[in-house]
Every structure is written in C-alpha cells, then in structure tokens.
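FAQ

Q: What does a record look like?
A: Structure on top, sequence underneath. For example:
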C-alpha cells in the first residue's frame, strides 16, 4: 500500500500502515458473519477501498488546501458502511475530525470496534438515517466537508448530504465516470438545497485502470427548513 500511496504524494508511516493492516484483518473477520463488503482479496481491498478512499487528497486540490489552512477540518461521511472513505481518511490524515454516519446499527458497532482497536481519536460513529440526523442542531449546517461514496444518484444524494454542509463548506461525492450527466440532473436539487458552484475532478488510481470522478459542490447558503424531507421521500421523488 505504501508504494501506491506514495504515487499520490501521500506518505504513510509504519504505524499508519499497521493500522491499515489491522483494519483489513478486522474487516475480513467481521465479513464472515456480516455483509460488509463483496471485495475480500487483500490487494483489491487495498486498491478499491483504502487507496480509493484517500485518493480525494490527490484528486481534489481544495481538500488539501482546507486541511492546511484550517489545521483541522470537520468531516462527515454519510452512508459510511464499513467505514469508507471515513476511516482510511482518518488513518492517513489524523488531523481530520470525522463523524461516520450509517443507518445500520450493526455496522456502527463494527466501526466503534475499529476506532477503539486502532486507538483513533476525534472520530465518532453515529447510528441514524441522514434525513433524521440532518434535523439535529449539532449536525445541520455544521461540517466543513461532507463526503459520500456509492450511496445514491446525485439528485437524491444532494438531499441526504447538503443539509449537513456549513456555509462555505463543500460536499465531495465519490462517483464513477459519467458524473457529468448526474451533475446535470442534480442542478435543481443543488440550488434548492443551498448549493452553489460544482466541479468534477476525474482521477485514475495509481497502477490501475480504475477511474473515479469526484463531484465537488460548494455550500452558498443554509438549506431551507423543508429539507431533507421525511425518510424515503428523496429516493421516491427526487428533487
């Protein structure tokens, strides 16, 4: 993993590499009794989960700029699942203050095991649906960066995520190629939810043909109180 991360100008210490190894072992062991990932081969997990998660630092210049300017940025990972991209980001960039949000309590319990075993600080796993958590004052309009990976199409994802982003912050969505069409379809939703400028950053993971597109959306004003709508509505009736 170290060789791959170095090709993205991300230098990991031996301690960080050990943390990734422990995380991999915990993931595979828990996956025997609980569906966390369909990818279990070690090299594939490293590339498609770990390297993919931290590649945002190489692909999106704004991410690194925010971290260097602020020293610490608050980051929310919506629909984190087995912890991607939030836990790899925390291991690689310890100064991030991270909240992991997932709707399945069994996954949150696993995430807490990982956090405890790795001795990570300034990272919290929260059980809840995005539509409900975004109504809570401690989360709404509160994060510098919100990330999401493989959760929903952008018109739906925008309603799940933009309410969490503070004014001046950004939503970063991990997407596959073809993001232009998703972004076009989401323009109305983005505007309604307080979003502003949007950019797409294509990226190919090192030593692979795996391509990724990052959609970065700025937050220009607070999300109207009407959003997000009640659970399930965004998926059934996208904005």
């Amino acid at each position: 993993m170290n060789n791959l991360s170095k090709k993205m100008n991300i230098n990991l210490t031996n301690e960080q590499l050990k943390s990734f190894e422990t995380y991999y072992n915990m993931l595979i062991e828990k996956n025997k009794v609980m569906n966390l990932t369909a990818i279990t081969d070690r090299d594939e997990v490293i590339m498609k989960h770990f390297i993919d998660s931290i590649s945002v630092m190489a692909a999106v210049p704004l991410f690194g700029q925010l971290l260097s300017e602020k020293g610490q940025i608050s980051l929310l990972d919506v629909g984190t699942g087995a912890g991607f991209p939030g836990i790899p980001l925390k291991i690689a960039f310890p100064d991030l203050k991270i909240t992991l949000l997932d709707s399945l309590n069994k996954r949150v319990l696993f995430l807490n095991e990982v956090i405890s075993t790795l001795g990570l600080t300034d990272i919290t796993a929260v059980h809840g649906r995005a539509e409900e958590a975004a109504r809570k004052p401690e989360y709404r309009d509160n994060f510098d960066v919100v990330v999401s990976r493989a959760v929903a199409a952008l018109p739906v994802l925008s309603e799940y995520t933009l309410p969490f982003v503070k004014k001046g912050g950004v939503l970063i969505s991990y997407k596959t190629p073809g993001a232009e069409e998703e972004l076009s379809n989401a323009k109305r939703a983005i505007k309604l939810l307080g979003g502003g400028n949007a950019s797409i950053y294509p990226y190919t993971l090192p030593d692979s043909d795996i391509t990724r597109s990052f959609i970065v959306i700025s937050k220009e004003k607070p999300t109207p109180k009407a959003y997000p709508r009640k659970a399930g509505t965004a998926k059934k009736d996208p904005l």
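Q: Is there anything notable about this one?
A: The CA atoms of residues 53 and 84 lie 6 Å apart.
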